[in-house]
Design a protein that fits this description.
441 residues; Rossmann fold; 3 domains; 6-stranded mixed β-sheet; 12 helices; globular
Length: 441
Amino acid sequence: MPTPTVAIVGRPNVGKSTLFNRLVGRRQSIVHDQPGVTRDRVVALARLGEASGDRNAETGQVQLIDTGGLLLGKDQLGLNDQVFLAVEESDLLLFVVDGKSGLVGADEEVWARLRRTGKPTVLVVNKSDTKAAKDGFTEFYGLGIEHTALVSAEHGVGLGRLHELVDEVLPPRPEVEEVEGESRLAIVGRPNVGKSSILNRVLGSRRALVSDVAGTTRDPIDSLLTHNEEIYRLVDTAGIRRRSRASGAAEELAILMARRQIERAHCALLIVDAVDSVTAGDLTIAGLVKELHRAVVVVFNKWDLLDEDKRRELDDSWPRLESLLSSPERVNVSAKTGRGVEKIFPAVERALTAFRTQLETAELNRLVERALARHHAPTHGGKPWKVYYATQVKTGPPTFMLFANRTLDRRSSYRRYLENFFRSELALPGVPIRLVIRRKQ
């Protein structure tokens, strides 16, 4: 189920970024006494309302957005576009006010605008670590917001109550109506690389709007397709561009939406403009697919436009993407002419089969033995790392639990060696492998 989204909103200089940093657990937003320092949205994952169990997310994880301060004067409307798009995309708002300053007219104006969205809201009275603020915070009840948390983001006071309210107020994520046994395929890529054109080719109809203007696709579109007696749900997502290259608020919103679609999917179809070769933006999207542990097939579109030099340039840029995504299958196509499109689904089928790989316990343990024999395990204090037993605990992606005499750091080169060894021996190109290593006495 997609991760819920929570936006922190309010007028400038009420401590939104300080609260964001406190909830995320690291200094990611810029904190400054000057109003209006946060201009662009900052997005990070945080754990809020962990008591919710699986009501909103399996781990209580939410996508937290820090927004710039809302200024509702006539000359400020353009600066607020990012904020209102974040509000539109969010499931819950944390409306932050300054407890020291008390209720001011700007707070009332901001709330009047936010209230019209109908979004569930928690009022966060910040900077409330003084007696005067505690005694005077009741005036904020005049806003008519039912759920209120009194906090000091700077000192970490009152956050427990805020977590409880997030758990209470955050609405359950609606279940996506799915067909039993369907495979979900997210079509992702930078703007204007031909995602919608490829979707139309695959479906054999103009299901998605196609335009030469980057960013035409604003909302995800689900389409069901039966291929070789298998049911697929295809999701076309809005184009993604790195934050430093984003040309408008709509593309910022597209990043949030695309992440949700990748979370819903079993496999990502990463569309790359072959004329541009592999760009930093493509690598950014690939990193997102890798982070979410999804299978992937890379499709180079506009192949018909390449001359010999361009093909050489593309081949030179491919290893960066190939390494990041663990050697995924690559398909060269032209959505315009239809060339190569028929090769997409066979590659997807192979990726999904690999994604759902299930090993017998005995086979897995023999595989571990071969891996240890081929490359000796690291030692610590003169004692080698030793595996006692291994078992597969999950598919999609294949997840293996190893019981050993000690754990391995997630950045361990030997852990990477084991993942690569399993992927190579099991023929799982473009499929993430997860290793869970437990210490056993």
